[in-house]
Amino acid sequence: MTVLAFERVSYRYPGADRLALDDLSLTIGEGEFCVLAGLSASGKSTLLGAACGIVPRLHGGEFAGRVTVGGLDTRDHGPGAVAAVAGVLFQDPETQTVMSTVRAELAFPLENRGWNGAAIARGVEEAALALGIEDLLERATHELSGGELQRVALGAALVGRPRVVLLDEPTSQLDPVAGDELIWLLRRLNEEWGMAVVLAEHRLERCLAAADRVIALDEGRVVCDADPAGFLGWAKTYAPLLQTPAARLAAAVGIEPAPVGVKRTRAALRERGLLPPRAAVDGGDTAARRPRRSERRAASTGAALELRGAWFEWPDGRATLRGVDLVLRPGERVALMGRNGAGKSTLLRCAAGLAKLTRGRIACSGRAALLLQHPADYLLADRVGDEVSAAGLATAGLSALADRHPHDLSGGERQRLALAVVLDAPEPPAVVLLDEPTRGMDRSAREELGRQVRELAAAGAAVLVTTHDPELVATCAERVLLMAEGRLIADAPPADVLGGGWYFATETARVLGGAGGALLPEEGAALCDVVQRSSLAMTGERNLNPEPAAGAEARA
Amino acid sequence: MSWQLASLLVLALALGGGFAWYERSRPPAEMLAVVATLAGLAAVGRIAFAPVPSIKPTTDIVLLSGFALGGAPGFAVGAVGALTSNMFFGQGPWTPWQMLGWGLVGLGGAALGRVTRRRAPRWALAIACGFAGFAFLTFIDASTWIMYSGAERSWAQFVALKTTAAPFDVAQVVGNVVFALAFGPGFVRALLRFRTRLEVRWSEPPPAPVVVAPVPSVTR
Q: Do A213 and B220 touch (CB under 8 A)?
């Protein structure tokens, strides 16, 4: 029984010269859990839009072929009718919420369908419990954090018990904990109620283990349609950028085919005797200690950004920053991590002067360039080329898109353009503050961002990036701050923070249990290599103790 | 039949016809929403400039809406804008006249859009808005003349009315031209972008499926 069928669908956005969907045919059965993979602008969001009927009805353009969702042909049924069988969560949840409180937001789809009051109350309660947002029900939607809003929007999509739920990067704004929880929640809904799930995601490592099927798109065509293991095998040859870190680790040490997920990768490594011994759980020294007086004085001279005992309190008494001490030096690349609502964005806003500390001191040595979570807010012109100077456009790699409308760009392209906008000034910034910059970015764009961060730092700016993406941190940061309840609870190099964590850890570190502080697949492979050589040496009855050397060699 | 009754009958027919046309075009929900928003904007434009006699952006908003979106939506923006703004200024026998007057301005904008294929320079939009402002006021003056001039109705009365109104007419026309010069093209651009997003060309897929696989694919 198919729940979603594409029959030879081609679609062109108005004024675009290439097809966004190119003669695409696809069927998704009842109760399947599908992941859509593909680089930025490969057609994932367009496919999801076409599946719920807003492409082409709210975008215009030329549409050929036929899409059937739960028996409804989108040619004959508008998005309103389709909404009864398909729940949708788009990339920007803030554009998807319509009501002022969470309860009203969850009730809205049911009210539109004419349910009676008692049924609505029950439906809202169940959806809120399923998503763990029952505490938020009376809150106003505009004061929720990005991650909370994403869960509320998902609740509104699920409340009418759709037969298929379409999600566009649902975990992009969630912390690793909430992201994992969301994926497993979808899996549970999928298993218990047979709800089909179609999920577009760039961070495949999060959702591959839960998926039944992976569909890879390239230039609006299906280039791979297989189970997760088959997909990883395909990606190794044809789309290396789509490989998960664990798959790259497996490929680097020669495991064929690549196992899916952390657990199986670890098992495969253990089987071959490649798994290094787990790092001892001694807690390590990652504390964010208050610097001594002499250090403070030394730090104050020449710091790019300095916060001293910074508090930020809301009028109702809630505090989002509680005595933060932080010094950023010019040229430093710092990642700020922490769960949703820990105070990361508030710290950035205060640092840029958008919000005033209620207590404490803050000093910034020059211009602070701040890019907040909603890139569309930075785009004001009708042409991409009018947003920034030609040089800025070239740096962002968007010169080819100069004549497009900024709001027609893909999520990742829009993010890059907004970054170009805040950096585009004659005076180079002393501090660059980026809030969740990897939203909607594929791996090549994330690597490009990492390169840009290193360049900015090399040019003398202190770069502070908040992110939920440990892989990004591992590639571009030299110092990681972990924040909880408005306090900095860790301040150390990435290997120490991300190597030993459960949630705040890269996939490689999770596979290897934090051994040797290996964060990236290449480091992990080097570590496994050392283990293999040393175990060969051991069997040759040479007395060698690999453990202390392992980490050092891997880092080198 | 008195002039008043006859004119109101014509008004009712014209307004009824205009709204019937808009309804029969079965605008999608998105178009209803944008028409309602623009009518609200036209009304707010009138209310915001209430302290300044005659200088109002309403005619510009209605004309440019018609220019970008077409006849039936343009008519609806003008007519609904007049009706809603009079909730603030007060309803009366002038309401249907204003509704029809601005509805016709919307139609005029649509005609201009059709003739110029919705590509008009800033100055041309400004001239059109100035002219529409004058035409609208003349229409309203004519309504005053028809409704209130009593039994001995004469052209001399109308000329006197128009002469007395001249300073207001000039202020209105200058205001309309300035407003159109200021925001005309930007307003049209925003609405045209909206319009392209509502225009879908549905077609059947090409008959012969051409199987070209540039990237070898795995299919289950």
A: yes
Domain range for A48 is: 1-78+202-243
Contact yes or no for B197 and A227 at CB 8 A: no
Residue B216 falls within a domain, yes or no?
no
Structural contact between residues A177 and A101, judged by C-beta atoms closer than 8 angstroms: no
Domain holding A72: CATH number?
3.40.50.300
Q: Is A79 on the interface with B (CB under 8 A)?
A: no
Selecting from B198, B218, B220 the residue whose C-beta is nearest the C-beta of A60 gives: B198
Give the closest-approach CA distance of B195 to chain A in angstroms: 8
Determine the 3-state secondary structure of B51 from DSSP: coil
Banded pLDDT at A202 (limits 50, 70, 90):
confident
ipTM over 0.85: no
Q: Please, what sign has the CA dihedral across residues B3, B4, B5, B7?
A: positive
**Among candidates A29, A4, A5, A32, which has minimal Cα distance to A191?**
A32
Instruction: Specify if A67 maps to a domain.
Output: yes
Q: Inspect the interface and report whether the beta carbons of B200 and A63 lie closer than 8 Å.
A: yes
**Containing structural domain, residue B13:** 3-198
**Residues 370-389, chain A: which have Cβ within 8 Å of B?**
382
Cis peptide bond upstream of A257, omega within 30: yes
Rounded to two decimals, the pTM is 0.82
Per-residue pLDDT tens digits for A210-261: 999 999 999 999 999 999 999 999 998 898 889 888 898 888 888 888 888 8
| CATH number for the domain harbouring residue B83 | 1.10.1760.20
Note the pLDDT tens digit of each residue in A142-159.
888 777 888 899 899 999
